Amino acid sequence: MNTHEARLDALRKELARRGLDGFVIPISDEHLSEYVGGYAQRLAWLTGFGGSAGTAVVLTDPGQDKGAAMFVDGRYTLQVREQVDGRFWNYESVPQTTIAAWLGEHAPEGAKIGYDAWLHGKGWVEAASRALDDRKGTLVAVDSNPIDAVWQDRPEPSAAPAIVHDTAHAGRSSQEKRAEVGEWLTARKLDGAVISALDSLAWLFNIRGSDVERTPVALGFAIVNADGTADLFMPEAKLPAEVRAHLGNAVRIFPREAFVTSLAGLKDKRVAVDPERSVQAIFAALTDAGAQIVELRDPCVLAKAIKNPVEQAGHRAAQARDGVAVSRFLKWLGEAAPKGAETELSASAYLHARREETGLLRDLSFDTISGAGPHAAIPHYRVDEDSNLQIAPNSVYLVDSGGQYPDGTTDITRTVWIGPDEAPAEVKDRFTRVLKGHIALARAVFPAGTAGSQLDSFARQFLWQAGLDYAHGTGHGVGSFLSVHEGPQRIAKSAGGQPGTEQALMAGMILSNEPGYYKSGEYGIRIENLVLVEEREIAGAEGPFLGFETLTFVPIDRQLVAQELLTAEETAWWNAYHARVREVLAPQLSGDDLAWLDDQCQPL
């Protein structure tokens, strides 16, 4: 089965053998992670899709309309068409349509549609079940995933050992954090909480791992009790002596497979479970056990998002270190790329090497988006040997990248004009509108209680004035040597939730500021810095106010700026920002690198 057509055919035969009329395949694992280990990359194996968000539905009978659909959001509209064969798959756009709605329309009357309860959340299962009701169909939880039955060389889950995340970087001990969760449980008259999100597990126990590429987490589950003790479900081989000593006697260790057995033993216990971060299988096991399920947000989520002073200082140090690596890369790019010999892959490799030179890089924080020309118009493009393009002279090049360091996680995007000629007026106009939006958000001051959706239009307003927009959020949360995409904070158009359900931004949260513009088939633009939410003192303010401290310091390409479009305040921001870039980076540079930095940081 070396082709995706053969794999699709094999899956359909397996579904028929099981008496199923269809099956749903998400990019997911048992923890509802955004990025998953190789063993859980079922969608990529089946379809060839390399994005981090997407779902497929396969009907056993292809019928008149292929009987297979790929669901992706606006970030992947172009990428899915490049990677997934349209002869066998329909392309569906989310949120314009949903998997549940598609099943309600395309599933056969009385269909049995399979799903893996360890890969889907409770809300999705309820919505899909309702959609199938209209066709007298049923959603069937499979005993084992049918893709695993036909994926003959599927890798095993990682056996890499966990490591201690020292309090010198974490700022608070695991004992303190568990005691705080215990108090949270006691205040709500709860006996325990299920912790299934991997970044919550890492944060709570001050451990890290290498089980998921680009995200330093270890596979496992936990149940935290009201007295602050906890049961950690993780293979013994993954917990060497120093990690066990770090965890202490208040954390009991069990094999990962004992997790379901432990859930079955919670009869009559009041247990908190996060419906956004826990799979349907956990709810089913607790229901079968007779536990009293209380649906609440994982108590680690908000505490993890609000970085303590030690974590904030660590982020600043990581950003300063990373900024030197990215600046050295940009200097090289400006000299080498106009000669026409560099490619998306060679540029990505050069940048990775500069980060390695810091001596503290543990991993990238995500696969580098190295987009030349038309590939820059694919927001989450990932280059490989087949897609690799030359970085052509007189074109736009976009690089979105980041590093995982023990003291912080970085994420930065820079868009560069590759000469030798001057950039076209249209490209300068679009870049400057994106820049103006970036500056507006960076300068925003807002009352406490403001949600990210209320700030999103700050970054879009100048594009909107020209009838333009972009199909992704403006900002996502960022972890502390953890996930580069961290909730619950975000800056994006409102998802249409009920008033009060969206997370307010709070001092200590870290987010990205990354407006963009994409002209399909031609070029793409994005400018991204990370920012820290901080308290702002305003004379006469009637209540507490907040603003942003910029954390990322790397020059922005002045060749792409149409200076006549900037106001005096925006020009002042640019000049102050680049003065700070020089202040942060110059002590770490010398010779030609420092001369380049001085040139890039000259005021407009």
Automatic annotation (TrEMBL):
Residues 315-535 form the Peptidase M24 domain. The keyword Protease applies. Keywords: Aminopeptidase, Hydrolase, Metal-binding, Protease. Its EC number is 3.4.11.-. This is Aminopeptidase P family protein. The keyword Protease applies. Belongs to the peptidase M24B family. GO terms for molecular function: aminopeptidase activity. It comes from Novosphingobium tardum. It is an enzyme of class 3 (hydrolase). Residues 544-604 form the Peptidase M24 C-terminal domain. It holds the Pfam family Creatinase_N_2. CDD domains: APP (cd01085). Residues 7-142 form the Creatinase N-terminal domain.
